[in-house]
Design goal:
The protein has 11 helices and 2 strands, in the order H-H-H-E-E-H-H-H-H-H-H-H-H. By secondary structure, the chain is mainly alpha-helical. It has a two-stranded antiparallel sheet with strand order 1-2.
């Protein structure tokens, strides 16, 4: 059944705006994974990109394979000069694409919209196209094909940032850890009631 009872003409982003954090995570991690794979095959070294991250205090998570979380993506984007000095020249297009996304990020993923955001988006699209890579990523598709539509209708992504709600995950874990092995089917309900009671 539909989640909403709204007219068919309703735009999806009127219900759920574009997710700034998850678009950034998806784009940066997709690029990072592809760069690591190509770099590894070329050099014969296992996980050279992730070793670069380790060497430069760019923290990654490993519980679902190597990936960067929010702070890690920003730290990587701040160290692109260093990455450029390490990556083989044949893969410099990935650094160019990271740079173009970093510019785009500060152009329209913030609270204020840059006057140059359209040019920054086109520059990112060009850099990405030059990689000759079709990742099939929904988040990359959204940035390339729908970001401009959203911005023209709603403005920059900053006001819709989901990082505050994402922070609830870490806050919830200690409560859930106390109840997840509770021997009854209502363990989730008990955990939610306890969590809500403590956060009134």
């Amino acid at each position: 059944m539909p989640l909403t009872n709204l007219p068919d003409s309703t735009m999806i982003w009127d219900i759920t705006p574009l997710a700034e954090l998850h678009l950034r995570l998806g784009l940066v991690n997709s690029l990072a994974t592809e760069l690591n794979d190509r770099w590894s095959k070329y050099s014969g070294t296992e996980d050279p990109f992730w070793k670069f991250c380790d060497e430069n205090n760019i923290k990654k998570i490993t519980y679902r394979g190597n990936a960067l979380e929010g702070p890690g993506t920003l730290k990587l984007l701040s160290k692109l000069d260093l990455l450029e000095s390490k990556v083989p020249r044949r893969f410099i297009g990935f650094v160019v694409t990271f740079r173009a996304f970093n510019t785009l990020y500060f152009s329209c993923f913030q609270m204020e919209l840059s006057k140059d955001w359209k040019m920054d988006l086109e520059n990112f699209k060009t850099a990405f196209k030059n990689l000759n890579w079709k990742p099939g990523s929904t988040k990359i598709h959204i940035i390339i094909d729908h970001l401009s539509q959203f911005i023209e209708g709603k403005g920059p992504l900053g006001p819709y940032n989901e990082q505050a709600s994402e922070a609830v995950h870490a806050d919830w874990v200690p409560t859930w850890d106390c109840y997840k092995k509770y021997p009854h089917e209502d363990n989730l309900l008990r955990a939610v009631l306890r969590y809500n009671y403590r956060h009134e």
